[in-house]
Specification:
11 strands; Herpes Virus-1; seven-stranded antiparallel sheet; elongated; repeat; alpha+beta; 17% helix; 2 domains; zinc ion binding; 210 residues; PH-domain like; cytoplasm; two-stranded antiparallel ribbon
């Protein structure tokens, strides 16, 4: 919801399983210490510390409702200048980049000899040479980023790999990915093969058009 509509209309609730961390302070949720709460104004999933505010919400008959820190400040009309401090490279919201991406989907990811883990992977349009990895599609901070330029792509799975896997290697760093099916793997490879050479799908289309 836009700031002007906060509290006036019921928000769309982000589902618990769409995030692995508080959407405000970015602390990871875990089974013991962090219960998930919903802000009744914006619908984001937040931890108890970030949901410890109450505001009167118009759509709920002006009753007092639990809201997150950001919505509280907007609704009571005070701005928090410190919030505007520059975001680091990892602090780009997944929903923001996924909605304007060259490609995004879940992929299995493996680094060195760690076990495979599921990651929400995104190559955003505004940074089409960087692969962002998130724990879940609505996370507000990336777990890692890989600048793709200069990587070598190896798309032949070894026996120990998952069937639809491919590797990105550059000197000592090796990142292994696996898609759920061959079609998805080929979609990713099409974009990555361009990115490692410093090209983007749009640029490719322009060159072919000329």
């Amino acid at each position: 919801l836009q700031n002007a509509e906060l509290g006036k209309r019921a928000p769309r609730w982000i589902r618990d399983n769409e995030v692995t961390m508080c959407m405000k302070c970015k602390e990871p949720f875990n089974a013991l210490t962090r219960r998930r709460h919903h802000c009744r104004a914006c619908g984001h999933v937040v931890c108890w510390k970030c949901s410890d505010f109450k505001a009167h919400l118009e759509y709920d008959g002006n009753k007092l409702n639990k809201v997150c820190k950001d919505c509280y400040h907007v609704i009571i009309g005070c701005t928090d200048s410190e919030e505007k401090k520059k975001k680091g490279i990892l602090e780009i919201e997944s929903a923001e980049v996924s909605g304007n991406s060259v490609i995004c989907s879940f992929l299995q990811y493996m680094e060195k000899s760690k076990p495979w883990q599921k990651a929400w992977c995104v190559i955003p349009k505004q940074e089409a040479l960087v692969l962002y990895m998130y724990g879940a599609p609505q996370d507000v901070k990336a777990l890692a980023t890989i600048p793709l330029l200069g990587y070598t792509v190896d798309d032949t799975p070894r026996s120990a790999d998952l069937p639809h896997s491919f590797k990105l290697t550059q000197s000592k760093s090796v990142h292994s990915f696996a898609a759920d099916n061959e079609e998805l793997k080929q979609k990713w490879l099409k974009v990555i093969h361009l990115a490692v050479k410093g090209e983007t799908p749009e640029r490719q289309n322009e060159l072919q058009g000329n």
